[in-house]
From TrEMBL:
Protein's name in the database: Uncharacterized protein
Keywords annotated in UniProt: Plasmid
Species annotation: Vibrio coralliilyticus
Highest taxon of the lineage: Bacteria
Length: 78
């Protein structure tokens, strides 16, 4: 994080009917501030995907293909 940057935050309610934009100046932040932001997952570093997540994503992809095929088959009847 470089001093003088700004964080832009968009907040919305659960029905997405009200949206509020905030601009927060990050000037004057120190190394301690940077650690605090990292602890809060603000601007987190990229993480490697776990093997379990990769396997689950493959399963989901396979299911989606199967369902798409089934959908196409049903729609082709009409």
């Amino acid at each position: 994080m470089i001093a003088g940057n700004k964080a832009y935050v968009k907040i919305q309610n659960d029905r997405r009917s009200e949206i509020v934009d905030f601009n927060v100046s990050l000037s004057g932040f120190t190394a301690k501030s940077k650690k605090a932001l990292s602890a809060c997952s603000f601007n987190p570093k990229a993480r490697e995907i776990t093997p379990e997540d990769k396997a689950r994503l493959r399963e989901i992809s396979s299911e989606l293909k199967k369902l798409q095929s089934e959908k196409t088959s049903i729609l082709s009847k009409y």
